[in-house]
Amino acid sequence: MAKENVDSLAPSPCSDTNDDEVFSPARQKRIIRRIDVRLIGVLAVIYVISLVDRVNISSAAIAGLNKDLQLQVGTRYSLIISTFFAAYTVFQPLGSVLTRKLGPRIFLSTITLLWGIVMIGTGFVNTWESLAGLRVLIGVFEAGLFPGAVYLLSTWYTRFDMQKRYTAFYGLACVAGALGGILAFGLSKMNKTANLAGWRWIFIIEGIISCVGAVISFALLVGFPEEAHKAWRFLTVEERDFIIRRVNRDRGDAITEPFSLGKFLQPALDIKIWVYAIIFFCVTTVGYSINYFLPIILVGMGFSVAASQCLIVPPWIFTGIVMYIQAWIGDRYRIRGPIIAFNAVLSLIGLVLMGFDHSNPVRYFGVFIIVAGASGNTPPVLTYQANNIRGHWKRAFCSATLVGFGGIGGIAGALVFRSQDSPGYLPGIYASIACNIIILICVAGLSLWFRYANNKARTGQKILEGLEGFTYTL
């Protein structure tokens, strides 16, 4: 698109164009539905692939990987998980910037292809040191997906459309990703095929699936709103203009500003961005620790390997239902903080049940509550920060810091549940309880500040986020 045409698409938030005169309300809904299917659908598929490739090591561990590579010695298993998240955390801040500079289609599909190739290679490792090295590479390549996807989604929708969309993206991916346990169980049955152990086939086949997904995403993924008319069989120029006007009326930042390192780093002075990051760190610490160790914990409860790989699915189905209900409530009533606090309390209840009850059925019920409260808190936190910031590069910086701290939470999650603490894993339980208490404190503090700032904005004493009339979402 010529530069002058892009610039002409940047009307003020109070553009006089009446979209009801351009498109009927039914046509507007069809346009948005088309965006949902194409954009969220493709991103969710890539993220499913990412999650399956990220956590398949836990299924491989109980399918013979631990024994063959002696990962049960000392802290080798936790160390291997940590190496992934160390690389994942370091390279995440680049994700949103490279998504903007290279374009979502090229960048996101390329890194998917690269980690798929590495995943195939993982099926042929013979030492735990080699496995750790390949997990570093997977961490490097996967690092760009989540911040890039979160940033891309935030540019397409108005503030009170976001939680349902983040829930669709993350929730669909997580529920489908949980089925990876069943897939891994089936692949492990290929044991001795071509003289390869079953756990090796888990990595090889899932790596091939990643490469195929990369090719599909390259063909179907769309870019930012101003480029939407260029995507194959997607939006017309008029439909693109409608989306841009819609976002501009909501927050006035539909068109990307030219890149400036100063503009990208300037939001670092905004304290609330770091509070969002701390909240997300706590959410991911609990979420990742449960995801990585759940099959092992279930085996410790007395379930068979096959049952453990399958029993991780029902908690995620329950979590998907809870996330969707919360997304509808959050967008309908325009609330964010109370939902995050509710999930933290839910997670606390689940941790107590799983950690301190001696009945395995009760402990397994606690798993449902923990997954719903911890991993289910990701879409509300993403929406919380996206609703309360403005500007493309501030959005990019906030996405980078948020998911960067999420990666640090992944490292912490890999370390708080240790093999030597089996079967109770009490240190991990205590650390997870502390994380949820911190979430409650942070949300309470932000809520008080937002209420104070909104009162100032409504009385004309303060302009928030550089836009007159803008108020924070509580």
UniProtKB/TrEMBL annotation:
Chief subcellular location = membrane
Annotated membrane-spanning segments are 37-57, 77-94, 106-126, 132-154, 166-187, 199-224, 273-290, 296-325, 337-356, 362-384, 396-417, 429-450
Give any Gene Ontology cellular component. membrane
- Gene Ontology MF, one: transmembrane transporter activity
Asked if Cell inner membrane is a keyword of the record, the answer is: no
Query: What membrane topology does this protein have?
Result: Multi-pass membrane protein
**Which residues belong to any copy of the Major facilitator superfamily (MFS) profile domain?**
39-457
State the UniProt keywords alphabetically. Answer: Membrane, Transmembrane, Transmembrane helix, Transport
Disordered: annotated span? 1-21
The listed locations are: Membrane
* Protein name as it appears in the record: Phthalate transporter
Organism field: Talaromyces proteolyticus
The root-end lineage is: Eukaryota, Fungi, Dikarya, Ascomycota, Pezizomycotina
